């Protein structure tokens, strides 16, 4: 008695173009089809087609906001928002938040495996060594307006770092600097890449804190010795010349967990559930009748003489966060 074997289903998609009657078989790999295979489905222009449709050049896939388009194949991060799953290099986020640190997770994301005790010690020491920034960058921060957005200042600061590391600039060292490093063809390029990783991770909290302190009108802090990565960030943000400043351990651990959750966003794009709408100007003026267009931003409840009467001129504030000066 012979046993019949059932053939495995073909990993492909059969498509019939009703415009031409042609049949196509599109391969399926990792539950995805290539857009270039879809482009092979071509036809001649018909009545009603626009020149912009480029029908003879192949079928296109229309996907506004990338709701169902895979742009890359990642072995680093897996995100499933519907099931609440997030994995870095195969490790569940719950394990990393509960048993790891941000710097250890960063090492995992970059190099593909968790560091040993000696590797982690050297990694942490090198990153904390690169937390300091050049004094000229502090001068760059002071050139911004007092009410500049922190993200604008931080973006400019990261761009400014390139002026202090010409050996890591592809425009000066060759366009293949980092591609040669990633492929392992150039040990010198790989060394430059590793140093840039240390610089960016190390200086990120210092630049972020400087953006915040600039917005608050406070002097900049220098990185402290003997604190963790997130503890040093809290010190840079909050220290007010207190020599014995110590970050709260609960807040420090919570911030470290937040950094782990946001360590890698991959490239998934999401749409807002509801579009953001600007605050109606008329409603704001009805609620705040003293809001005149001739406010002076730096002044707060300053008295001005007009027609023999003194009136208070309020400070220009965002409608959503009115506050005392």
TrEMBL record:
<dbReference type="InterPro" id="IPR036969">
    <property type="entry name" value="Citrate_synthase_sf"/>
</dbReference>
<dbReference type="Pfam" id="PF00285">
    <property type="entry name" value="Citrate_synt"/>
</dbReference>
<keyword id="KW-0808">Transferase</keyword>
<dbReference type="InterPro" id="IPR002020">
    <property type="entry name" value="Citrate_synthase"/>
</dbReference>
<protein>
    <recommendedName>
        <fullName>Citrate synthase</fullName>
    </recommendedName>
</protein>
<dbReference type="InterPro" id="IPR016142">
    <property type="entry name" value="Citrate_synth-like_lrg_a-sub"/>
</dbReference>
<dbReference type="GO" id="GO:0046912">
    <property type="term" value="F:acyltransferase activity, acyl groups converted into alkyl on transfer"/>
</dbReference>
<comment type="similarity">
    <text>Belongs to the citrate synthase family.</text>
</comment>
């Amino acid at each position: 008695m012979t046993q019949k074997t059932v053939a495995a289903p073909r990993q492909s998609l059969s498509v019939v173009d009703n415009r031409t009657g042609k049949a196509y078989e599109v391969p399926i790999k990792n539950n995805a089809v290539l857009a270039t295979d879809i482009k092979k489905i071509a036809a001649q222009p018909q009545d009603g087609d626009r020149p912009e449709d480029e029908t003879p050049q192949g079928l296109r896939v229309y996907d506004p906001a990338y709701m169902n388009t895979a742009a890359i194949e990642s072995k680093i991060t897996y995100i499933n928002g519907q099931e609440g799953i997030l994995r870095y290099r195969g490790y569940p986020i719950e394990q990393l938040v509960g048993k790891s640190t941000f710097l250890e997770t960063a090492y995992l994301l970059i190099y593909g495996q968790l560091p040993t005790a000696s590797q982690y010690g050297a990694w942490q020491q090198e990153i904390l060594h690169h937390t300091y920034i050049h004094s000229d960058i502090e001068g760059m921060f002071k050139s911004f307006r007092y009410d500049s957005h922190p993200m604008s200042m931080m973006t400019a600061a990261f761009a400014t770092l390139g002026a202090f590391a010409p050996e890591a600039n592809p425009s000066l060292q060759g366009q293949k600097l980092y591609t040669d490093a990633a492929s392992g063809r150039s040990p010198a390029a790989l060394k430059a890449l590793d140093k840039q990783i240390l610089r960016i991770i190390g200086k990120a909290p210092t630049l972020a804190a400087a953006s915040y302190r600039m917005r608050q009108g406070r002097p900049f802090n220098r990185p402290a010795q003997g604190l963790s990565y997130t503890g040093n960030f809290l010190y840079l943000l909050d220290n007010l010349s207190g020599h014995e400043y110590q970050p709260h351990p609960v807040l420090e651990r919570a911030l470290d967990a937040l950094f782990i959750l946001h360590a890698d966003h991959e490239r998934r794009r999401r749409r807002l559930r509801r579009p953001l709408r600007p605050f109606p100007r008329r409603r704001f003026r009805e609620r705040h009748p003293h809001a005149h267009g001739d406010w002076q931003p730096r002044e707060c409840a300053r008295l001005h003489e007009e027609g023999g009467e003194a009136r208070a001129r309020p400070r220009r504030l965002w409608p959503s966060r009115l506050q005392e000066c």
